[in-house]
Amino acid sequence: MTTELRETEILPDEGIGSLLRPDRLSAWSWVLAYTAIFSTISVLRFHLWIANGLDLGLFEQGFWLTLHKGLLAATSYTGYPIVESGGSWLVYPLALVYGVGGVGLLLVAQAFALGLGYLFIDRIGDVVGVSRHVKHLIGMAYLLSPTILGTNLFDFHPAVLAVPLLFWMLLAVVEGNGLSAALAALLAISASDLAPILVLGAGVVVWWRRMPGLGIILVIGSLVLGSIDWLVLLPTANHGLLPDWTAYFSALGTTPLQGVGTVLRHPGFLVAWVGELRTWEYVGVLLVVPAGFLVLSRVHRVSAWWIPAILLMETNLVSALPIRTSPFNEFSVAAVPFIFMAVIEGLSRAQLDRRRAKALLVLPILVFVIFVWQQHRTFWRSIPAQPTVLQTAANAVPQGAPVLAQNFVIAHLSERDRAWLPARAESRPLPTGTYVLLDPLTTTGTTPPAVLTRLTQEVLKKGQADVVFSQSGIILARLVKPISPLGEFK
Amino acid sequence: MNAIADGPRAPRRAPTFTDIVRLRWSSLGIWFELIRNLAVRDIEIRYKHSLLGLYWALINPLLTAAIYEMVFGVILKTKTGTIPYPVFLLTGLTIWNLFGNGVTSAVGSVTGSASLLAKVYFPRIVLPTAAVLARLIDFLFSLVILAVFILVYRVPIHWTLLWAVVILGAEFMFALGIGYLCAALNVLYRDVSQLVGLVLMMWMWLSPVMYAASSLPTVVQSILLVNPLGALIQVQRDLIFQGASPNIPYVWPALAWSVFVFVAGVIVFKRIEPMFAEVM
Questions:
Q1: Which of B178, B223, B252, B271 to mutate to probe the A interface, most A CBs <10 Å?
Q2: What is the pTM of this model?
Q3: Which whole-number Å values give the CA distances from A129 to A124, A345, B80, in the listed order?
Q4: Predicted ipTM of the assembly
Q5: pLDDT tens digits, residue range B27-70?
């Protein structure tokens, strides 16, 4: 058809605009399929009150506060402004997304951002010279990778925006478009507080690959912007404390600079994780499919793009908190573009025909099946027995009233100044007028059963609270007297 | 073909944004004219030589609604909150029929135009598009009936109704996508036209057309609303009569499904299109 031929000619065949060419429609269909399927599952999970981590509720409240109280309003979950919770300055435009479409649009945006990786893999594969069936194989392995799926399904994290932005940076680098790469890197750093580590690593690779100008820009840019973010803006916004650093790297020192000093004096810290089984599980889940592809295709060339990914994984491995070494969450997701970039480069020289590429697809499918089994026996098991009753109880909480509830409930009640998880009761008093909504029969990893039992006993003490709603073990009560801190639950 | 025969290529001017928009617009204009003519032809064929003509577009939904009203409203006394059951039912049927009738028309649109395909070249995707578009006329007639019922029963409607128009656009896109898929597959396997009727019937019962999803337990409700069409029907009703906020969580995945089904429909149709000449 004449019109199509002319359109194909007229649309750009490089740069970000090339992703809109009609011949990319097939790649787009995979992105859209992923978005539709996994946003549906995420929304279903939300609708069925299946345990989310606390982050969906945290970001919901943060976005609501941003829209109603300004950029630096502190969330009641952490006591810090929303910008300090793993994302960075791109978190603020997401508040507008939330304002327009609520939780549903946030979850669709998250799935879409992660799904876009397939499109970039398709395009980068073209530039690098990978055949169509190998591009599809890598794209499918990306979409089915446990890190991408886990990040998508478990909760909501603005840091996922860094994934398409880092892919864009990689596309610009392989196309030799320095300006575009620098812009993408800047935006990626604005999306995730872990992105500077990856951009730093990418800068080293680019420098080494004879693009010194871009390499220097990426290295200096990541160091300067990362330092401004970590050493100036975040402590200023939080009046001197650096919550993420304290939470995750306290073993290294109280500030990032002290941390660097500790590592330089005691380099053994960098490999202290080697003796732990859990950390090998982390490395295994992240790398089994990419490494499997390279081994099974007998690829002997190691891509330099592993460097940024290893840098981020190493950062997670030296952290004091086990959550950093879960391969299913936002702490590792930004490394995925670099891992798959290394696979693309690795497989670009492999002699893979269509039949062998199809046979290799068994590996990611097998890992996907294990992932589904793992999800089924953990998160999808903790469905509250009475979601309809929970809905009724949640509807009875007055708008704007302070509320305390478990993690799977709180995401439905976060549009208010004060929303707390049960852990708050351990160390801080609960003020009069707080609505406490508890489902003691449903326990998740976030709230231990002992905490729930103790809190329920406190709330039901005579004269402590007016019970507003009680059915099938689910209680909604309004405190008429404050509850003093209950102490650490052991 | 070789490089010498082709001659040296003149350097190509970089396309501007205006170039792209102008090209896209002019090609759209040509195909839209054809789609419109085919849609008008479709309506004429459907109502020509019938005594009541276009009045069937009014009578059909009224009779269907009367039958369901008898079963669900009078006999089963289905609860639909503050909305009177006839209005509730007619709203659901109107929205459903745009999809159901559109898909039914699209299925046979290619196989039914064999003589036209043999004579003239045009993109075949125009046929199912025109077939779905032609059903907009029926939809508009149904809207008139619905408006009369809303006035008679004095049901308040809300300004959020405007959002329902956006959702309707997504539903139309969904209908087009399924229409493309079925029309193309029907050329290869005529069983598709038989199957579509059955699938649509099941689909309608699994969507909150005749009953309110909100009256069901949360688990059943959630599973019903995973069905994109169920979500779109429910949310349109909520927007019109409840003044609900458009940011209901399950509406967004339904919109994502609409875009995906549309794109997938176009791709499948384009893949099968070259085989039409061999099979027909």
A1: B252
A2: 0.89
A3: 8, 9, 59
A4: 0.89
A5: 667 778 888 888 888 877 877 777 777 777 788 888 887 887 77
